[in-house]
Amino acid sequence: MARRMPEDRLEQLVEAAARVFIDQGYARTQMADVADALGVAKGTLYLYVESKDALFDLTARYVDAPQPFETRPALPVPTPKRGATVKYVRERLAHNQAPATLVKGLARKRVTDVRTELEAIARELYEIVARNRRGIKLLDRSARDHPELASLWFEDARSGLIELLTRYLEDRTRRKLLRPFPDPAVVARLLIETIVFWAVHRHWDSHPQVVNEAVAKETVVRFIVSALVKE
């Protein structure tokens, strides 16, 4: 019979595991570290997950899910089959990769207001990244220990988004709607890295600058638009 955990314990477990995996990376994280962060005995964790691989898979799937979780797995969560975690991450990245505003922009033949268009793209991209903040940080910190995850994140997801943004920037520059730069791909990468820093990485800065999230988003969006759109 499947075990039932106390109210909110699954959310607490995922929160604790995410903090430890992000802080230490996958290889250095021990089950005892997560147990300490959760405030339970190490053996108690095995009532909930069969192994560290099971805990990592559980965390990857639920780390950015709204709380309380709508669905709860049977306990203990089994060790995933080989490739199952990578398959899930690939599907999640594919679902969240390209902002709808960017896809529509690339298909648009006539542009009447490039400032509004670019602002919408930058804002949606920021919101997607912020919504998946901890999952992105988890991937980023675990990539060194999981080459397949590193390939998904750095080569597929990020490179694919850079390619789409580069195409958009090249098109709008060719139409003389945006400022020309020597290499649109560099601009696309700069745009993404700026958003990812402010939406994700600054939250784990050892000496963080205290900035309201809405203010950070609007500042980044306005900065991007002002830098690229011709007056």
Entry keywords:
single chain; mainly alpha; Arc Repressor Mutant, subunit A; 2 domains
Walkthrough of the structure:
Helix 1 (9-28) packs parallel to helix 8 (133-142). Helices cover 66% and strands 0% of the residues. It has two domains: 9-80, Homeodomain-like (Arc Repressor Mutant, subunit A, Orthogonal Bundle), CATH 1.10.10.60; 86-228, Orthogonal Bundle (Tetracycline Repressor, domain 2). The radius of gyration is 20 Å and the shape is elongated. The protein is built from eleven helices and no strands. It is mostly helical and 231 residues long. The longest helix is centred in the C-terminal third of the chain and has 28 residues, at 147-174.
Instruction: For the record, give the distance between the C-alpha atoms at the N and C termini, rounded to a whole number.
Output: 67 Å
| Total beta strand runs | 0
Class of the largest domain in CATH? Mainly Alpha
Which structural class do the helices and strands define? Answer: mainly alpha
What's the total helix number? 11
How many domain modules? 2
* CATH domain fold name of the largest domain: Tetracycline Repressor, domain 2
Unreliable segments of 5+ consecutive residues: none
Order of helices and strands: HHHHHHHHHHH
Report the sheet-strand fraction.
Answer: under 5%
Short description:
The chain folds into 2 domains: 9-80, Homeodomain-like (Arc Repressor Mutant, subunit A, Orthogonal Bundle); 86-228, Tetracycline Repressor, domain 2. It is built from 11 helices and no strands. It has helices spanning 9-28, 31-38, 42-45, 52-62, 84-96, 100-107, 114-131, 133-142, 147-174, 184-199, 213-228.
